[in-house]
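ENTRY TYPE: paired fold submission
RECORD: A
CONTENT: sequence, then structure tokens
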Amino acid sequence: MSIKAFELVSAIERVKLMSDKAKTQIECLDVCGKNIYIGTNDCFVVHYSIEEKMHANGRITFVTEKQGHKFLVVKKPVVQLQAASALNRIMVLCDATLTLLNMFDLEPIVTGAKVKGVACFCINENPVRTNPFSVEICVALKRKMIQLYTVTEDRLMHLRDVSLPEQALVVGVDGIFVCAALTSQYCMIDTDSGHITDLFPIDPDQIRPIIKRISKEEFLLNGPNALGIFVTSAGVSQRPPMQWSDGVTAVCFVHPYILAMNDEFITVHSILDQQQKQAIPFQGGVFLGDFDGRIFVASCREIYALLPIPFEKQIQALLADKRVQEALDLARNANKTGMTRDKFLKMFKRIQQQAAFIEFSQQRFEEASQLFQESAVDVREIISLYPHYLPANTNFTRSVPPLHEIADINQLSKSDEKVKAAYKHFLQTFLEDIRGTSLAHGYKREIDVALLKLYAESAPEKLSELISVDTGCDLNDCVEWLEKYQRLHALGLLYQHHGEYDRALTVWTRLVDSNQSDPSFPGLEFVVEFLASLPDHELLWKYVDWVLEKDEELGVRIFTDRPANEAVSERLRPETVVDYLHRFPRAVITYLEYLVFQRRLEKEKYHTHLAVLYMEAVLKLMEGSSRQEELDIARSKLRHMLQMSNLYRVQLILGKAKEKDLHAECAILYGKLEEHEKALRILVHKLKDYGAAENYCVVNSQNKEPGYCKRLFHMLLSVYLDPTYERRDTLVAPAMALLNSSVAEFDTVKVLQLLPDSWSVGLLSQFLARAVRTSMHNCRMTRIQRMMARGENLLVKQAFIEIQRDAIIISDERLCAVCNRAFNNPSFVRYPNGVVTHVHCAKNKYICPVSGKLFSARKR
């Protein structure tokens, strides 16, 4: 695909040498700075000055003036010219002889340095030596040899010879490598080692051998079948070959373009994709060359410049043709044209943004997204393509000059709903990708508002997460949109985020009360959770009645699930809440349970109130026709409350329990009154629950003195063995089970006194055996303790004797080691190291106050 990369401009319209009648024709030329040197077919070297002139309309012309000429006498064509500005010399190849001329007066150098028998030569643009006042060249001789020279102002210094299998027709050099076109093939020569690598065969009669250095150790060769072949110094090709026209006579390179000339055209090819970009008609061309980025082309009598079209214009032309990839490839290489880094980055980002909108308009969304992100486009440029998606009060205006010509997505979709949906899906995905990244910095509100509107249309399940977590959505733009699509729960969340709690609750209560459906709304439980964390207690009471009427058990969580760090409020004092909840029986029970069991408030009225409510619930179930399972659960809760709490009014509850023969509850209450015998008689005689009686003794002896447990078990045994009980025979088995229990504790002597005389030893054998073992164990343990105490007493006596062994004499002359005062009373302190002090001067009995030495506690 074509693009205008160069423009042909006349540099020297007609070369005038000796006269108009002279049949002088251009053979070669070289440009060095503002100087142009021309070699002719009749042995002249002509010197012109040349300067570019920029006109107001941007057109460039050249101003030239002839400076002089030189006739080289031999009357043979000047085959090759090469200027060396560092030496002020021109190297001229004429009549197979390489000579040096002065750049300014074109006179030969005094020393007459020359090389004869030369077929061609080439300057080494990547010299091995770094002397700035010399030039390295490679000379191909008409014999089978190349020579390397260092050129100075007045001489050609020979460095080395390299023999070849054939004569070299054309050479190119880079560092130590020489690429040569021989009479039958191209080859690569390592001048250090002399190693020759064959590349591919050629027929000089069919194609013109051409070698052009492209980059470090890389050359472009004119190959068979009109192919330009890239070759490295290693003899391999790292780029695809380039197809150009037949009959190519000259090649030059200015990044990223390669220009090839034949008899009719100059074709321009890109080194990036090897494709032809431009064809410039030009007949009769004899020379084409690049000189420090400038390209000149010559016919027999005229010289032209190929001026590059600015990269920006080329890229914009490609973008206008929607050739995005070519434009980007060209833009990436613009920094190799001498452009500053800052200018390049600014230009490249804008080109990426333009390319992104082109990809966007062609529905290539993946490529568009990548380019948008790489170019850090102002996200509002994208959102503005979607009508009404930007906040209404935004002050955004599109880029000037514009990045695109798109009005909006309606223009792109052409009323096709599927295409419009695809564009909206792209925007949603793109905004989700960049949200929270540096690309979104400064545009949080615009991004979140656009996302909210997109979610409201097609993804309501994502609204809650967007609004709840650090959203930038504002009320002005979003309320109407959410109401339009009936996203009422999201609307409530938005009000909540902006502190409009009353409006939020109004929306949620409307959702609960009405038949409107919002799949994302969790229901009444969500409202309760919100109220439970609401800091505005006045507003909270406005909705408590409504919630409790809907669900008492759920509504009471408004009071029980408050934040742990919430400040104490008069409006939420427990007394206030309890008084308010009297109208809601289940709620008040749940709240009292919260106060008693979770908050563990030790106030008699709460404990008594809860116990009374439990009792009333049990009595109500007993009077009604409720299931036994419900009654058992209610009584279990009552018994748990009576057992764990010590703060309720026992007598009040006991009176109610007696009235309805709640024996298990009465037993617990008697235990609270320390009337254990009554409690045990109820458990044994009324309930006949012997396990419960045994457990009663264990539970009621917890945290009491050691003998308390024995007294309770003796009391239980007395109940079992009570001779006044009519059915005492039925209690023999429970009594024996109690005696043999591993949990029960007894005084064996008192047990034997209680037992009836009629019981045999065999019946009591298990109890007696255990009692004997326990007694023997206790006896042995006592002896061990006594002996250990005796041993410890002996150790103490020994330590005391050792302390008394050394006498301490306290006289009027002896002074305290700390305060240096006399001892006025017989009390003193002596440390193990012999230091003696007053009692009040010994701050720490384990540390010597004089030396600071630490003594262990055992040696005090």
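RECORD: B
CONTENT: sequence, then structure tokens
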Amino acid sequence: MELLRSNLSRVRIPEPTNRIYKQECCISFDTPKSEGGLFVDMNTFLAFGKDYVGWNFEKTGNPVYLHIKQTKKPVPEDRPLKKPTLLAIGVDGGFDNHEPEYEESHNIVILPVYVTLPFPSVELPEKVRLAVDTILMADGAEWKEQVASWTADKKQNSAYAMNLQQIDNGVIVPPSGWKCAKCDKTDNLWLNLTDGMMLCGRKNWDGSGGNNHAIEHYNETGYPLAVKLGTITADLDGADVFSYPEDESVLDPHLAQHLAFFGIDFSSLQKTEMTTAERELDQNTNFDWNRIQESGQEVEPLFGPGYTGLVNLGNSCYLAATMQVVFSTRSFYSRYYMNQSLKMAFETAAADPTVDLNMQLTKLAHGLLSGKYSVPALEKDDVANAANSTPVAKQEGIPPRMFKAVIAASHPEFSTMRQQDALEFFLHFIDQVERANTGNPKLDPSRSFKFGIEERLLCPSGKVAYNRRHDYILSLSIPLHKAMSKEDAFYKLKAEKGLEGKEVSANEIERPMVHLSDCLGTFSAQEEVHDFYSTALNAKTTAIKTAGLTSFPDYLVLHMRKFVMEEGWVPKKLDVYIDVPDIIDISAMRSKGLQPEEELLPEAAAEGEAESKNLSASEDIVSQLMSMGFNYLHCQKAAINTSNAGVEEAMNWLLSHMDDPDIDAPISQEAQSAEVLLSFVDQSKVDTLISFGFEEAIARKALKASGGDIEQATDWIFNHPGVSDSSDMDATSSNSPIVDAALPDGGGRYRLIGLVSHIGTSTHCGHYVAHIYKDGRWVIFNDDKVGVSKNPPKEMGYLYFFERLDR
């Protein structure tokens, strides 16, 4: 007790604003349920597992800890299971999360000799008792992230219900025997509440559902409300009413009156169909609900190093699928696992390691790759009888809460519990990793994905311009006009399965199939660029653009543009397969650079430069970007800064400049400042770069190339190690292919090592799953479920990851 009293100055009573960690170690995924429990530093309120608390003492000198240990209580074998009725977790009527009950014990532990004092105890100093009580009563920082918030939005009254027009055309709806008026469907039928037409619902991604006749009827007539037959009972609040113009399930407060108009006595009807919400609920209770999760097949579970699942935090499958593939690459495996220990990361971390990206990446890497947390769960809840318990084919997985909080801190969307686009997350993640490794390019694992793109613009004058940029993904359009017919695609699939000794399932969907080579061809194909300002003609004109790669990265990520905009800017997912071989060769995509017979467009004079800077943005490009949710001003800037080259170029510019300090500045001001920067460089910034050891000429060139930003100028110099004051990075003449010396490079042959698949009507809903080629076999990573993949959905990928063969 005297030892504790002598260290009272190192004990703090938490303030309401303090973040208190008591559910998870900030260095590992240990919890109070782990064998050694959890130690909460009573000065910083950070938590540490048994193997790591000593490191914190060495680093901070803080000796007093609250030890929390949770032990499972025995659970009666005859405990009844309740069926969920609400799309929620851990609430009354929601999913039973099967969380067993725990007994929790507390002790005060004093390092370095691990003196242990029981709590509660009247002998403890009042300051310690008050501090512990505050810690135990406070909400843990981990749970303030609103983990597992699945509750569906509450339905609202439809604006169209009050004055709904109903047409007296003699329609009387019978109590049973319903059938679509335009096909033979007898289920998933919707009654239009205006004219009484009974029509089938929308067709799902897998061919199930209806034939779209109900929504087509709305498009033809504009009649707004429909109710799903089979969901109408005496409890009218449970009926599934859908509003087409509002595009969501709604409440119809006059539903009884609207049904009676067509002779429907709702009091006598029985429920025979699931509502839309119940269908969503059913899909969330059955994780084998689609092809990408290999439904209907027994998946052999895998355990051990490299086979650890990630717990779904609530719509976090986009993060889980992406990070599983990322950490299967050698670059990230080496950087954050093989070459960096947890202790090394902790010693170099900030005072609060929970907000240190390097620490949390290292924690995640060791959690996924060490195998420590990839062990079979015990079948019985009573761990006291663990010796008599048998493992079951599942693992608990690890929750990437702290990593998600850190990586999302600079992105408002990723910090929410909503589903996100895996592509956007990958690009944001890579950007954050690159920033964290600024000044250490050799340690930066994101460079393994980075490559150069060179665009050639041919003006009608016969002169050319070359633009260079760097990227991390190759985004590919899908040329549907080159697709195989559904029948040919089916027979090709059948032949491939036959070679593997497999049969095509009766449920296999026939879809048109496009070869990956045709998708790659769209990247290099000629494209017209309208409103291109030609300095040779001093006028806007139409140029011809082609593109190639200046370097071949260690890992090539292909993004399939399966989501397109239809007429009226309505997003649509392409119902198509991609024929992806295991080996691809992109050698022909190497850019050749400026050729001897080509003449560059002249540099703009001051007036022309100002004019080019003030080019009006293409409204077509701006409209497409705005339909994706971007700000109008930002969309204009993206179009102008890419010379209206196209939506893809504008999108890439926008994603890489979202954090620019002047992104919200008016365009006119930006143009003026850009023009000034072309002729003037702040000498103080030049002097700063010179103090870093760079030559003055190179410093000036870097500041001009980066718009006067010192940090970006430093990056530019590191990315152009061979540049001199006389070199020209924008236009070169060469008889041989261009090589970007600043980036990894090699041959053009690649092997498929992973894919991220998506199911859903948009990238912001549905589910993501990863398939990775490991140890000579394909493995499925479906959140916390990891197993041998018998039938990887290579044809359904959203992101494909290829590894260069000559690494």
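NOTES ON RECORD B: The first strand starts at residue 38 and ends at 41. The CA atoms of residues 484 and 513 lie 5 Å apart.
STATUS: closed
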